[in-house]
């Protein structure tokens, strides 16, 4: 080899070794392996802002966006809504009402009493108003409970619309012993036990009157009075007058 060529080769080898050492010194330790939106960022951090050949290092690398894998969408299916069955009582309570047999009606009559007479059959729970032509108008009634039954013949001595009520002292004491306090006096009205109309019998404390408990018609529940539905006693009230004969049996 020629001396000039040998010299040139030595110079090139020396420059390569110097450049390699300079590069190792420049970077110190190798940058960590880090995933980053900018893949050049770790290397730039190692340079500490120094430039190579007078030009600042800039990264033109595109940002990498990591997305979490999404689960496949479930296909929605529609199903009819199952509604819970309505639970009903096995033995529902019977609503309060009156047996239709006790509603007013025209019946035949051949008992011998004159038209206009009132006959009350306490056993059958019927009141009859005798009419012309062998007929009678029949109404359902409530009667005296056991121990308060009575029978007899009287006349209507007074009539009253929406009567007031003064319970007798015996009744007040009797009900108080049961834990029920009765008023000494109650004005007439829808809440009054005597109802819409009253027909007073002789000089007794008994009456034919309406009621605020129509479901008791056909039963033995009173303290001796004869009770009727309000609409029925109002109808009877227009058909009879003071002096009408009343037979209770």
The strand order across the widest sheet is 3-6-5-4-13-8-9-10-12
Give me the CATH architecture of the largest domain, please: Beta Barrel
Please outline the major beta sheet: 9 strands, mixed
SSE pattern, N- to C-terminal: HHEEEEEEEEHEEEEHE
Helix content: 10-25%
Rounded radius of gyration (Å): 56 Å
Unreliable sequence segments: 34-66, 80-94
For the secondary structure, the number of strands is 13
Q: What are the main properties of this structure?
A:
249 residues; alpha+beta; L,D-transpeptidase catalytic domain-like; 2 domains; 9-stranded mixed sheet; two-stranded antiparallel sheet; 21% strand
Topology:
Layout: H1 3-27, H2 41-47, E1 51-52, E2 55-56, E3 105-108, E4 118-121, E5 126-131, E6 135-140, E7 143-144, E8 152-161, H3 169-177, E9 197-201, E10 207-209, E11 220-222, E12 226-227, H4 230-239, E13 245-248
Parallel strand pairs: 4-13, 7-11, 10-12
Antiparallel strand pairs: 1-2, 3-6, 4-5, 5-6, 8-9, 8-13, 9-10
Q: What report would you give on this structure?
A:
With 249 residues, this protein is α+β, with helices and mostly antiparallel strands. The protein has two domains: 3-56, no CATH class; 100-248, Beta Barrel (L,D-transpeptidase catalytic domain-like), CATH 2.40.440.10. Helix content is 20%, strand content 21%. It has four helices and 13 strands. The chain has helices at 3-27, 41-47, 169-177, 230-239; strands at 51-52, 55-56, 105-108, 118-121, 126-131, 135-140, 143-144, 152-161, 197-201, 207-209, 220-222, 226-227, 245-248. A nine-stranded mixed β-sheet has the order 3-6-5-4-13-8-9-10-12, with helices on one face. Strands 1-2 form a two-stranded antiparallel sheet. It has a two-stranded parallel ribbon with strand order 7-11. A hairpin with a 4-residue loop joins strand 4 and strand 5 (126-131). It is elongated and about 160 Å long. 19% of the residues are buried.
